[in-house]
Automatic annotation (TrEMBL):
Organism: Funneliformis caledonium
A single GO molecular function term of this UniProt record: zinc ion binding
SUPFAM superfamilies with a match to the protein in the record: GroES-like, NAD(P)-binding Rossmann-fold domains
PROSITE patterns reported in the protein's UniProt record: ADH_ZINC (PS00059)
Keyword Oxidoreductase: yes
Limits of the Alcohol dehydrogenase-like N-terminal domain: 45-168
Gene3D superfamilies: Medium-chain alcohol dehydrogenases, catalytic domain (3.90.180.10), NAD(P)-binding Rossmann-like Domain (3.40.50.720)
Domain Alcohol dehydrogenase-like C-terminal, chain residue ranges per copy: 208-275
Top-rank taxon: Eukaryota
Pfam families attached to this UniProt entry: ADH_N (PF08240), ADH_zinc_N (PF00107)
Protein name per the record: 15490_t:CDS:1
Keywords: Metal-binding, Oxidoreductase, Zinc
Length: 405
């Protein structure tokens, strides 16, 4: 069943009397705290209003911070990971009630279109009316909280309150905030590449998503995991989880270094770095003049996997890239898959695993208040102070551990 995407309302309505604190984008590296932004209100009968108790800064938020993705407008509220307490629901919301503690899916799905029925929630056909995205990709993608008007123009979650469309499908009655995005995305990377017992897995990028992917690869029985990054604290965390590590600032030729580690090649390569990662001067020049996305890490991954190997792309790529090694994909009989995680598909399964403490998802290194967001964006962008992931508590009662919210 397909719905007319023109019926979805993405522009926020405002309560003219009540205000809130929100994190707004005002241009390249210009993040501001607005203490008098109007609160959102219910628009559709399937909406809920959630009072946010905790939110995070995702690595992909840095693309917006640096103005690397088009479609942002001044004073847009950012952020797509969060949890909180439901304060109001529309008349057609059946499963979510006021006072429920909830985690919010980063991606917004309708729950009833053709793709949602197949549990391909991140391909929802209803929640993103962007004509530009449809023209660029040939089809629509799902909406996303706080992630440009190319993703629907929804207000983000780095705020005291947020309107959640289709609340029954986009809210989970739980308070494990990593289920909002990072835990599900790391699992999805393993699902796309079908990581299974005995596999040798290489993971490019040890940010929060990469570390999540490492944890899930270990849980799924990978015999060896080799992690590639250049930030010492991230490599140390990857090692603590159980990965062997390669610092690409020390070892410039990753392909030859990987042959020393695994002479026969990797069974699986997972790309978690995305389009910002440029390892070569050629790529830096072309990013400036000719293209939007760097494929240095993806090129390495393709050359490091064995014949018949599997590759998943979970790092963010948005546009075009030059010098894609299509010949290697063809001649080595590789399988390459990618895509945003359908968070809702994995919630029940991953919630059970995470509550059993069988996987290391201890990714938070920094804690602060929502009002500190500007400071933490700068630290996160510069990769200073050993930062891996920051938790921002919202409201008067701030505790040190996210799981307490």
């Amino acid at each position: 069943m397909n719905s007319n995407p023109a019926t979805i309302i993405t522009e926020p309505a405002k309560n003219l009397n009540d205000t809130m604190i929100a994190v707004e984008w005002h241009g390249n590296t210009d993040i501001r705290i607005n203490t008098k932004r109007k609160r959102p209100v219910l628009i559709q009968p399937t909406d809920a209003i959630v009072r946010i108790t905790g939110t995070t800064i995702c690595g992909s938020d840095l693309h917006l911070y640096k103005n690397e993705i088009s479609g942002m407008e001044k004073a847009d509220v950012v952020g797509h990971e969060g949890m909180g307490v439901v304060v109001e629901v529309g008349e057609k919301v059946a499963n979510i009630k006021p006072n429920n503690r909830v985690v919010i899916s980063a991606i917004i799905a309708c729950g009833h279109c053709e793709y949602c029925q197949k549990k391909m929630f991140s391909s929802c056909d209803v929640t993103n009316p962007s004509k530009e995205i449809e023209e660029l990709y040939g089809h629509r993608t799902s909406g996303t909280f706080g992630y440009t008007h190319l993703a629907g123009g929804y207000d983000g979650i780095q705020a005291e309150y947020v309107r959640v469309p289709y609340a029954d499908i986009n809210l989970l009655q739980e308070k494990l905030i990593l289920l909002s995005d990072v835990a599900c995305t790391g699992w999805h990377a393993n699902e796309l590449s079908e990581v299974s017992k005995g596999d040798i897995v290489g993971i490019w990028g040890c940010g929060p998503v990469g570390l999540s992917a490492i944890s899930w690869a270990k849980y799924r029985g990978a015999s060896r995991i080799i992690a590639i990054d250049c930030i010492p604290e991230r490599l140390a965390k990857a090692h603590d989880i159980g990965a062997e590590t390669i610092n690409f600032k020390v070892h410039k030729d990753i392909v030859n270094k990987m042959k020393e580690f695994v002479p026969g090649g990797l069974d699986v390569a997972i790309e978690c770095a995305g389009f910002r990662c440029t390892n070569t001067f050629r790529q830096q020049v072309e990013n400036t003049l000719l293209e939007t996305d760097s494929i240095d890490t993806l090129d390495e991954a393709i050359r490091c996997v064995k014949k018949g190997g599997r590759i998943s792309i979970i790092g963010l790529f948005v546009g075009m890239a030059n010098h894609f090694p299509i010949g290697a994909v063809m001649e080595k009989s590789l399988t390459l898959r990618g895509g945003p995680a359908p968070m809702q598909k994995y919630w029940v399964q991953l919630l059970t695993i995470m509550k059993s403490n069988k996987v290391d998802m201890n990714l938070f290194t920094h804690h602060g208040k929502l009002e500190d967001a500007g400071k933490f964006y700068k630290i996160f962008d510069k990769k200073e102070d050993g930062i891996i992931k920051v938790f921002l508590c919202v409201g008067d009662q701030c505790e040190s551990h996210p799981e307490k919210y």
